[in-house]
Amino acid sequence: MAGKHPDPTTATAALTIRAAADTDRDAIWEIFRATVAPGDAFVYHPNTPREEAMAYWFANGTRTYAAEEDEKVIGSYILRPNRPGLGDHVANAGFMVAPAARRLGVGWAMGEHALNEARRLGYRAMQFNFVISTNEWAVHLWQQLGFQIVGTLPGAFRHAQKGFVDAYVMFRLL
């Protein structure tokens, strides 16, 4: 991976991150579809139907957020307990950014927002269960935001171009 993560203050000055509304579903679906289509960075199948995608992204018990710039949704993330019951003090999140807005600091801004929201909601830590090792931008972003790789799942992801690649479990205390 070349270079440093983009300065999050430059590209996101006009960015608003808010709770997603039903009216955001079309934009979030387009981002979801564009994110899973290459089969290289997210576990959902490239042909995931809209109904299944939206049921996951707007599931009961999940807080869904939209990142908006100039009244256009350019990213979204979800926040939920990683596990039920006695593990519900650890948050889990998933992030997607529209292709045209990638590498401009939107992911960074949503990551910081998610960490602040998780703290506000009383979570003690955040865990990502399945970060694709070949998604170097995501791995680097999460490390810059204080996450550590605490486990490697050998060959756990079936990458569309590279075959079986590792996935990481990443964790940080809040």
How would you describe what is shown here?
By secondary structure, the chain is α+β, with helices and mostly antiparallel strands. Helices cover 28% and strands 34% of the residues. It has a domain at 8-124: 3-Layer(aba) Sandwich (Aminopeptidase), CATH 3.40.630. Strands 1-2-3-4-5-7-6 form a 7-stranded mixed sheet. 32% of the residues are buried.
List the helices and strands and how they pair.
Layout: H1 8-11, E1 16-19, H2 25-36, H3 50-57, E2 63-69, E3 72-81, E4 90-97, H4 106-120, E5 125-132, H5 136-144, E6 148-159, E7 163-173
Parallel strand pairs: 4-5
Antiparallel strand pairs: 1-2, 2-3, 3-4, 5-7, 6-7
Defining key terms:
seven-stranded mixed sheet; 7 strands; alpha+beta; 174 residues; Aminopeptidase
Please sum up the structure shown.
This protein has 174 residues and is of the alpha+beta class.
Lateral arrangement of strands in the main beta sheet: 1-2-3-4-5-7-6
Assign the CATH topology of one domain. Answer: Aminopeptidase
CATH architecture of one domain: 3-Layer(aba) Sandwich
Tell me the series of helices and strands, N- to C-terminal.
HEHHEEEHEHEE
Question: What is the helix tally?
Answer: 5
Whole-number radius of gyration? 15 Å
Low-confidence segments, ≥5 residues, pLDDT <50? 1-11
Q: Report the end-to-end length measured between terminal Cα atoms.
A: 27 Å
